[in-house]
């Protein structure tokens, strides 16, 4: 399908691609709530367990079939993306519900909300549905991918809920930890308390109660901003287990002109290599760096209790760069500075849109986006984790640094944060 038409509610289209990108988009505006994408993998209309819910606190399904890839902001346009790989879909899964939830307001205050299905192989748009009639809803089923006679299709749904993501999830059999209740004015007094009722259509039957499960999903998250840049890990429940730090990015393709200029741009971004790194200082005074350079990947079970998962050159095409901190040994950590360098493929972070997510094994996700880069920076301080009594505080840095001629990115970040290490040239 070269140019897809905007779908009407209730219509469907074939999805011929073996994998798709599901992109939710909207326009950022003052006073509007943040929007989050999520997906539910269904078998005969219900989830099999809470693991079939993919969202910001549970970003990948165990099968690998559905992944939450995170947000990007370009100018006033915001997108939140899910990746769906039909080849990895378990045979019993016959439907993937694509939902949106509003954090801090109703969808009546969100402008330009849409969902589109894109073929990642060539960037072509397979389907697009624009939602324009929202009022008091705080969650929406925008559409669904479903299996019919061996082939996948996409249906535009547009069903709203006034009980938020918790209400929508409960409807499909998810058990929610501490559900956020909607204000009384938005709920029917006759509605049973444990289950959520769709705002439209009003005649939807009340679903059976969710089966008991061992651990309910937690729907809270924290987004760090310039105005509120720091958070305590213990307040988010992140006091033990693995803290996964993920950096994901995409290149904004702005090719003005053709010929040699276009060729250079494509070549530059095809081999883009960003490296996620960490400077650490332990309570015994020892200092060091975890990075791909010099194969200094670290260790989770012995000092520095930080491990770099590998070196990924694909950014948003895969799971980005990942680094893990062992919070079971948090008392040994004095401070950890997470940073990223441009190893090759670009002269600066300009035109790169990156999202940083810190996901504690137990507790709410902490995320933030990087600002637009306007300086010739090849190294960016992302987050500073500092020991504060028995707790760790995470602070958003999002600070672009410009190395002086002949000075390495690592030495530049060391000088900016007073780490005081001796550096020698390294390679990977």
TrEMBL record:
Location of region: Disordered: 175-213
Coiled-coil positions: none
Low complexity: bias regions: 183-203
Xref: CDD domains: TerD_like
Family annotation (InterPro entries): Stress/Tellurium_Resist, Tellurite_resistance_TerA, TerD
Boundaries of every TerD domain copy: 5-172
Similarity-based family: Belongs to the CAPAB/TerDEXZ family.
The protein, known as: TerD family protein
